[in-house]
């Protein structure tokens, strides 16, 4: 019976082991497809679905591992690969940063320091 | 004035008269009338970051190439009479891909491969096997007889 592979188990494996698992699942998929052509029982269609999803899980874990490795490599560096940067939107990426927005001239800073907005209240 | 000083003075005066005192511009001698692109410094690339974080795994691997074997009446005839297997194949695969895939997956060499694209858009491959291999055996081994 084709079981759903546990992603927790997959995450413990190394890249080489994962590619091997991927191979076995793809083989299984191929065999199932051949059996389907040869006219097998209807149970095959659910099996095929499970195996396809297993292949997807292994590939997901593989890419996640690869990308996290690359992130580790570039940690602390100034320029990182563009597909690891925040996506947001094109306009937001080009907008001023919070720091840049908050900058004031010395003149303005002095004005605000010396003449802050006062709040008054009337005693009831 | 000493005689040497007098003569050098005369010589500098002669030079100044003939060539001027400012120094001359060096003009490059051109031997053709065409101005060809000069060779400039070309630096090799040294990127500060990879554009793509992780390279993409191969999408058309041997498992994607062969989709399913055909076991229609005509296909069965081909297996028995012509020693060929008939497969449905990915449209992006070429004969070299198919040959490689068959070799890797079923351990069989292909003598020659003919392909066509069916009217519904799926590629069909006729994979002729060499005479020393029996297509019927291979089909049984694959499991679709």
TrEMBL record, chain A:
Q: Which CDD domains match?
A: Ribosomal_L29_HIP (cd00427)
The record ties this protein, via Gene3D superfamilies, to: 1.10.287.310, 6.10.250.3450
Does this UniProt record's set of keywords contain Protease? Answer: no
Pfam families membership: Ribosomal_L29
Q: Which UniProt keywords apply?
A: Ribonucleoprotein, Ribosomal protein
Which cellular component appears as one GO term in the record?
cytosolic large ribosomal subunit
UniProt-listed GO biological process terms: maturation of LSU-rRNA from tricistronic rRNA transcript (SSU-rRNA, 5.8S rRNA, LSU-rRNA); translation
Write one Gene Ontology MF term. structural constituent of ribosome
Which InterPro entries does this UniProt record tie to the protein? Ribosomal_uL29, Ribosomal_uL29_CS, Ribosomal_uL29_euk, Ribosomal_uL29_sf
What family is this protein classified in? Belongs to the universal ribosomal protein uL29 family.
Extract the PANTHER family matched here.
60S RIBOSOMAL PROTEIN L35, LARGE RIBOSOMAL SUBUNIT PROTEIN UL29-RELATED
Its protein name is 60S ribosomal protein L35, L29
From TrEMBL, chain B:
Q: Which UniProt keywords apply?
A: Ribonucleoprotein, Ribosomal protein
- State the source organism's domain of life: Eukaryota
Kindly indicate whether the keyword Ribosomal protein belongs to this entry: yes
Protein name from the UniProt record: 60S ribosomal protein L25
Q: Which gene encodes it?
A: RPL25
